[in-house]
Amino acid sequence: MKHTVVIGAGQAGASLVAKLRALGDTGAITLIGAEAVPPYQRPPLSKAYLMGDLPAERLFLRPEAYYAEQNIDLRLGQVVTAIDVAAQTVTVGGDVLAYDDLVLTTGSVPRRLPSAIGGDLGGVFTLRDLADVDAMQPYFTAGKRVAIVGGGYIGLEGAAVAAKLGLDVTVVEMAPRILQRVAAPETSDFFRDLHGAHGVKIIEATGLERLIGDGHVTAARLTDGREIAADFVMVGVGIMPATALAEAAGIALDNGIATDALGRTNVPHVWAAGDCASFPTAAGRMRLESVPNAIDQAECVAANILGADKPYVAEPWFWSDQYDIKLQIAGLNTGYDHIVTRRGEDAVSFWYYRGTQLLAVDAMNDPRAFMVAKRLLAAGKSPDAALASDPATDLKALLK
Ligand SMILES: Cc1cc2nc3c(=O)[nH]c(=O)nc-3n(C[C@H](O)[C@H](O)[C@H](O)COP(=O)(O)OP(=O)(O)OC[C@H]3O[C@@H](n4cnc5c(N)ncnc54)[C@H](O)[C@@H]3O)c2cc1C
What we know:
Elements: E1 3-7, H1 11-22, E2 28-33, H2 48-51, H3 64-69, E3 72-76, E4 80-84, E5 89-92, E6 95-98, E7 101-104, E8 108-110, E9 124-126, H4 130-136, E10 145-149, H5 153-164, E11 168-172, H6 185-197, E12 201-203, E13 208-214, E14 216-222, E15 227-229, E16 232-235, E17 239-241, H7 244-248, E18 257-258, E19 270-272, E20 277-278, H8 291-305, E21 317-322, E22 325-331, E23 338-344, E24 347-354, E25 357-364, H9 367-378, H10 385-389
Parallel strand pairs: 1-2, 1-7, 2-3, 7-19, 9-16, 10-11, 10-16, 11-12, 18-20
Antiparallel strand pairs: 4-5, 5-6, 8-17, 13-14, 14-15, 21-22, 22-25, 23-24, 24-25
The protein binds flavin-adenine dinucleotide.
């Protein structure tokens, strides 16, 4: 019987095995995950789960029983340590498993602060896994002081939860502005103001020199000499694709595990999807770190394993929740040259253009603008910027 082995029981791995079964694959399927819990959704880790509003079971993508019902061998708490691409086997614990098809859905690993600058002091946390949040959550009590290193989405979501719970919050961002890597100044300004209104101190254009503490962190010293007293530190300075296993097996990398449009790596019968995979697009090779990409790409690879021969065409979108603001992003803003703003009642959206071409939209509490933008981008349509930004324009009319 044909055997598909999937390494990494996260969003992409779980989506892939479910899709294989939904498409009628009756072969053997093994899904191997390093974490002790069934595949779960990560977005609430920095939102409702961190806030204490969601029990852990509600994070699970499917009940654990689903995998047995679908005859999927789910191996939890097990790390694949080697792939032999010539023998078509993987090593996990004491077992060597043979595969006909192998999929790498190993996700990402968070960047950590070097120990030389205090990165391994007690009370210093990254936020990637359920276990990270469970370790950090006891500190999320009113009155505690947290220094958050990195003003990206994860850091800002952590800041929002901390502020709502009554902590004293300082965010330190090395770049000239928060969200610089992912958003326009307009979006950075919006979120800076929002956090300011909730009492969060945001320090931009200032790096971390080192963390201070004797065993446990007590302060963060910044490059301008300032010291921020802290009971704990949350580090949100980005992630790297989890490629070590693939690299050791001789699988080609290019900003992640390099795949072709079908999701195949350079090694026969080895595929990749999700955060760890980079894939070709008309705009060049791309790697996306988002739930929609993990699901869509994994499902596409599942279909291709079964012979669909279907190229993956990404329709990037993303979201972030901070306080009572839901940010929804359609498209990718890379290469934009101007922005127009559309203001509504308690809502605003920023529309990114390159010339007359619409590239992306950041919509704050404006699901309608987001949905219309997503459909416009999927259809390759670019509305006139003056029309899009005019609050009098019926957004749906832009689709015609
Ligand atoms: C706190 C947080 C908030 C987020 N918020 C959003 C959001 O609002 N919107 C959004 O779109 N995206 C969000 N994301 C990103 C999104 O969760 C990821 O893009 C998505 O989980 C990627 O899925 P994946 O399956 O590729 O990787 P993962 O979900 O990371 O799964 C990979 C799994 O592989 C396992 N693994 C790795 N190597 C091995 C091995 N050798 N053996 C066995 N197992 C292995 C890992 O332990 C992990 O469980 C957020 C992420 C985090 C951490």
